């Protein structure tokens, strides 16, 4: 009797089992965080390099890879490529190409207090804060200077227990900062990074974008030469406050920092 039918049956069983195992594997996001919007003082809304603003990449409420247009960075202070890589771009971000596209679409201006409000999208828990931002004055990405992040992502060491959340982040130029890139010598390249995959692999997501700054960022409280538009005060959103309070309470309970409730004793006459 030929053993071939038995072998075929075994292979068929293995194939079915392998197919079933692939079907039940959990969906994995390709990236961890991204910069959806750059909100300019001139009313222009820019986007992080590589972001698909058409709505085809799911954010909340729909299945699919919410990190398909998010930027991935190599960890460390000097990522290579400079502006990372994006899955939808099929590789490294080309700074010159993305800058040209952003200029054609309209460049958001820095607010008069030197700040840039961002909509930072956290894909999953590995895309948490805090975020760090820096800028390249000539827009090339050859060198960077640090910025202040005056309203940051929630999280510790790049992790925060949230999925598909959009957070308001504010990056702020330091006093004396100026931009010299682009055709009008007033564009800066900004890079913001957050997230982690381990204790030694941090700043692995986020993105790059450009902004326009005429003049120099003045000292706070002075009438400076920066010509950014309206400066609005940005505070924590209710969503950020609720998340931060929840995490703080959990950490306090974990470390036995919350005093136990005392019940009132009944007083007898």
Automatic annotation (TrEMBL):
<protein>
    <recommendedName>
        <fullName>Secreted protein</fullName>
    </recommendedName>
</protein>
<dbReference type="Pfam" id="PF11327">
    <property type="entry name" value="Egh16-like"/>
</dbReference>
<feature type="signal peptide">
    <location>
        <begin position="1"/>
        <end position="30"/>
    </location>
</feature>
<dbReference type="InterPro" id="IPR021476">
    <property type="entry name" value="Egh16-like"/>
</dbReference>
<keyword id="KW-0732">Signal</keyword>
């Amino acid at each position: 009797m030929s053993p071939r039918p038995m072998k075929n049956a075994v292979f068929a069983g293995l194939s079915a089992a392998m197919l079933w195992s692939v079907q039940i594997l959990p969906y994995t996001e390709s990236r961890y965080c991204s910069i959806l919007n750059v909100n300019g003082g001139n009313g222009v809304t820019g986007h992080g390099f590589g972001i698909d603003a058409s709505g085809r990449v799911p954010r909340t409420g729909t299945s699919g890879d919410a990190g398909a247009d998010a930027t991935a960075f190599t960890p460390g202070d000097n990522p290579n490529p400079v502006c990372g890589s994006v899955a939808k771009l099929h590789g490294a971000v080309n700074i010159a190409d993305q800058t040209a596209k952003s200029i054609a679409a309209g460049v958001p201006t820095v607010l008069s207090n030197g700040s840039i409000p961002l909509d930072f999208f956290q894909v999953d828990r590995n895309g948490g804060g805090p975020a760090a931002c820096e800028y390249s004055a000539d827009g090339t990405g050859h060198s960077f200077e640090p910025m202040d992040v005056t309203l940051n992502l929630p999280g510790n060491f790049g992790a925060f227990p949230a999925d598909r959340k959009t957070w308001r982040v504010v990056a702020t130029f330091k006093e004396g900062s100026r931009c010299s890139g682009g055709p009008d010598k007033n564009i800066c390249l900004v890079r913001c990074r957050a997230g982690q995959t381990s204790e030694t692999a941090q700043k692995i997501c986020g993105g790059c974008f450009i902004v326009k700054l005429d003049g120099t960022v003045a000292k706070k409280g002075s009438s400076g030469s920066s010509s950014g538009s309206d400066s609005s005060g940005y505070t924590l959103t209710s969503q950020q406050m609720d998340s931060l309070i929840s995490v703080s309470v959990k950490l306090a309970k974990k470390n036995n920092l919350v005093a136990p409730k005392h019940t009132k004793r009944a007083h007898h006459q």
